[in-house]
């Protein structure tokens, strides 16, 4: 009988350990063992991207015609607020932007630094500016995060380099019901749709082409069986009740087993 009770206690504890293995990230990372960091793929400009392009020069008046007008918005207190990022260049379906005075400039397929160089070269070749300085930034670099995360939604990215882990952090992490081994990144580029499956429990995600995100990527976190089986009528109530009932049941079972072992 004592052996049976001990076996039951061990089984309960092992069940708890298995549950923790399902939710812990990067379980196989080797501590204090440096690894080479994989360089993020350079983000290239694609049709429908919106770009902020600012031209400056030692001749401000001559450079002004190449900059889109800064738009003003009305603040709640009646003051005018100026935001240069309300205007931008949209890359058309053929991959071109319509640049003031110059006309069409091919943008798709280039990264933002290459486009900067192309615009500066064009302005010099056409003798429009002697010493142009051009800055190009993405205005619509965003990713959408769906499924079992705390705060699903669409998030704007202010950097050219963002990882899937950083994006999940923006969405305030996966819920306890999210499957760490079934996180999907859906990407559209070059007229094709690619889907990648990531296992956040493994350090192999660092080698995935989807570890670093691109503009308009969609991240989807698959729900586990518990979540999938819940009623959609009153999810919040079912979630809180089932969680506390499970915890209470586990603690009660362990307490009873320990008490019986002590008595014997």
From TrEMBL:
Give the stretches traversing the membrane.
241-262
List the record's Gene Ontology CC terms alphabetically.
Answer: cell outer membrane; pore complex
Source organism (scientific name) = Candidatus Limisoma intestinavium
GO BP annotations of the record are: monoatomic ion transport
* Ranges for domain SLBB: 142-221
A Pfam family (short name) is Poly_export
Q: Which InterPro entries does the entry mention?
A: Poly_export (IPR049712), Poly_export_N (IPR003715), SLBB_dom (IPR054765)
Q: Which PANTHER family match?
A: POLYSACCHARIDE EXPORT PROTEIN GFCE-RELATED (PTHR33619:SF3)
Q: How does the entry describe its membrane topology?
A: Multi-pass membrane protein
What does the UniProt keyword field contain? Cell outer membrane, Ion transport, Lipoprotein, Membrane, Palmitate, Polysaccharide transport, Porin, Signal, Sugar transport, Transmembrane, Transmembrane beta strand, Transmembrane helix, Transport
What family does this chain come from, according to its entry?
A: Belongs to the BexD/CtrA/VexA family.
Q: Which Gene3D superfamilies match?
A: Outer membrane lipoprotein wza domain like (3.10.560.10)
Which superkingdom?
Bacteria
State the compartments where it is located: Cell outer membrane
A GO molecular function term, named singly, is: porin activity
Polysaccharide export protein N-terminal domain ranges (all copies) = 40-137
Stated name of the protein:
Polysaccharide biosynthesis/export family protein
């Amino acid at each position: 009988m004592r052996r049976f009770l001990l076996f039951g206690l061990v089984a309960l504890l092992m069940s708890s350990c298995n549950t923790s293995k399902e939710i812990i990230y990067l379980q196989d990372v080797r501590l204090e063992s440096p690894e080479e960091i994989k360089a993020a793929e350079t983000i290239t400009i694609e049709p429908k991207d919106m770009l902020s392009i600012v031209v400056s020069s030692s001749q401000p008046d001559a450079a002004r015609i190449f900059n889109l007008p800064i738009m003003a918005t009305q603040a709640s207190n009646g003051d005018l607020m100026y935001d240069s990022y309300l205007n931008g260049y949209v890359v058309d379906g053929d991959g071109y932007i319509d640049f003031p005075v110059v006309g069409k400039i091919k943008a798709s397929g280039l990264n933002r630094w290459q486009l900067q160089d192309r615009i500066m070269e064009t302005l010099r070749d056409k003798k429009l500016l002697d010493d142009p300085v051009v800055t190009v930034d993405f205005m619509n670099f965003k990713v959408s995060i769906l499924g079992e995360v705390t705060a699903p939604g669409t998030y704007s990215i202010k950097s050219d380099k963002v990882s899937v882990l950083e994006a999940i952090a923006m969405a305030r992490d996966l819920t306890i019901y999210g499957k760490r081994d079934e996180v999907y990144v859906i990407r559209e580029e070059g007229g094709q749709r690619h889907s990648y499956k990531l296992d956040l429990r493994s350090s192999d995600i660092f080698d995935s082409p989807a570890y670093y995100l691109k503009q308009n990527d969609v991240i989807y976190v698959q729900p586990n069986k518990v979540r999938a089986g819940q009623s959609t009528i009153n999810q919040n109530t079912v979630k809180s009740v089932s969680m506390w009932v499970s915890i209470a049941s586990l603690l009660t079972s362990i307490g009873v087993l320990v008490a019986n072992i002590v008595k014997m």
